[in-house]
Amino acid sequence: MRTTRLSRRAVLSGAAAAAALTAVPSLQGGAQAAEGVTTYRWRNVVQGGTGFVTGVLFHPSVRGLAYARTDIGGAYRWDDSAGRWTPLIDHLGWDDWNLLGVEAMAVDPAHPNRLYLALGTYAQSWASNGAVLRSDDRGATWRRTDLTVKLGANEDGRGAGERLLVDPRDSDTLWLGTRHDGLLKSTDRGATWAAATGFPGTPSASGQGVTLLVAAGRTLYAGWGDSDGTAASLFRTVDGVTWEAVPGQPAGVAAKVPIRAAYDRHTRELYLTYANAPGPNGQSDGSVHALCTADGKWREVTPVQPGGTTDDGDTDSFGYGGVAVDARRPGTLVVSTNNRWSLVDTVFRSTDGGRSWTSLKDSAVLDVSETPYLKWGADAPKFGWWIQALALDPYDSRHVVYGTGATLYGTRDLKHWAPQIRGIEEASARLLISPPAGKAQLLSGCGDIGVMYHEKLTASPSRGMASNPVFGTATGLAQAAAKPAYVVRTGWGDHGNGAYSNDGGQTWAPFAAQPALAKDAPGPIAVTADGSVLLWVFVHWDGTTYPAYRSTDNGATWTEVPSFPKGATPVADPADPTRFYAYDTATGTLLASTDSGRTFTARAAGLPSGDTQFELVAAPGRSGDLWLSVKENGLYRSTDGGIGFAKVAGCRAAYTLGFGKAADGAAYPAVYLVGATDSVNAVHRSDDEAKSWVRINDDRHQWGWTGEAIAGDPRVYGRVYLATNGRGIQYGEPV
């Protein structure tokens, strides 16, 4: 189990270093640096999307070619023959975790193999600068330029239009709109960048900056997200040098932020969606407008005005998000609502230039049999939410796709919709259990989608999300070591924050009661080896820690444990049901309980402390065999229940640790590590109790940040499960 620590943002920024370790001896004959790499095959554990698809781009010149971007999970290319998406930036490693978020994409209609990506997840001070990748082979290989500015693919406005554009007059010229640094221009295909002279938008440290770039013929348009609703929010250039505000553009709250734009080359009209906030959350008003680029005249073509009243008396507030035009049929387009929670978002379609509209949701037949979690514990799925990515196939007028906060829906007949998501696995995975027995190969806990029971690794779980109750984000997941049918989970839920299962996680029952702290600060949980005692820790999302509570009746009653260190993660001994352990990161002290969690007393002291990342793990099948991984100081081990620890030599940094089935002839479980045995952070395996290591991932499979959780399979030697922050759950097997 993981100890409570700083938020991922603080951890990744390297905000603090661990204390000196002069009091801890080294193990004799310790681990040596890894020699070579063991060949592994890596694949995603299939969940089926689960994250926010922020953009889809059909190539205008190549049938069947499309690209998708996500807010934290990379970019993908559609393989039309295979009917699935191929990930394109899994090669980005530990130091480049901030580049897994894709701010924008661009293709060159004149050069079909060229692809450009603008990368950068956060624009905060603790995040690295953005980068631009450019490819001549549709993303198979890349060249990279690091920027001097930050991008924000997982910040407000991430579902807005493409901020990256190839100039239609010159394929060597690219434009990049930023959030806080204005408009950038490159004249060498993205190799170098400089501020675009003459652009009238004034950058703001707290604003949205450029929200979209689009070409209408040879004229370029840029949306500006920092208008107050009265100043200009749309600019254009005819010559690529001089920019001006577009005359006559709509004003007011409903047209405050341009979200997306699409150009109908047949009618020479530019369609724009607007909202009163960048989204995806926070929008309550919006509109849709058409600009005739031939004569400069504007038309409002808003399908439904926000602000009406529903039958239940709620206000029907929302903004407008996606827009796409039909390349084959003049005047045919689709637009989407966004943040419409009362009546649920929809996609409107028009065949007469926006003069009349049809809601495609009203006749939609949704089939989510391939990804059952999309029912969210209900009887039937909803059409979607956070619909800002919207695209229309230029070679098939009835092929429409739209992204949501959890999937990508597609249709081929404008009526029947199903997830078109195969290959896109975007999730922030946090908790992993590979059970030693039972039907499940894996239990997982993720941000936003709670806990899942994986009977197969190659199909989305047939049971969907764990229900009774449904969680948004999972915070705790634990299994009784000697009674694997008993599992408990905790998380953020609307109808309770904890539950237990007596069938290995197939079905669940909510705790009959919970401490008041659970509602606003559900944290990790542990269970004794025999399933008789639960220990629940409470941690608020802002990092505030609270006392732990103990239950001996499946959560019907709870008692505070004053001696448990606040914020620590409890670890149950896998062989002795009377023992719990906890690591106090503030003091560098290991505490233990020998009375089933009633009281805790200090044991080893002088261990690493401070604001950094720690994980305490108990080796399976053994009592008192504890391993402590420390972000910047490596790995420590105790074989006496935490009375003493020794530093494992040859491990420079350790982020997360797990165990799996032992190798043939080995008496000790295989040890899996995300960390560094030399100068490179990687995924490692040891078959000899950490005396030696082999790297088991490679430079093509790095997935950015992988320091949340790792678990070996206790039934299959060599198989390992890896939690990533954006690329879902990866699993590897020796080849």
Automatic annotation (TrEMBL):
It comes from the Bacteria. The keyword Transport does not apply. Residues 1-33 form the signal peptide. GO terms for biological process: polysaccharide catabolic process; xyloglucan metabolic process. One of its GO terms (molecular function) is hydrolase activity, acting on glycosyl bonds. SUPFAM superfamilies: Oligoxyloglucan reducing end-specific cellobiohydrolase. Keywords: Carbohydrate metabolism, Glycosidase, Hydrolase, Polysaccharide degradation, Signal. Gene3D superfamilies: YVTN repeat-like/Quinoprotein amine dehydrogenase. CDD domains: Sialidase_non-viral. Coiled coil: none annotated. Belongs to the glycosyl hydrolase 74 family. This is 1,4-beta-glucanase. It comes from Streptomyces aquilus.
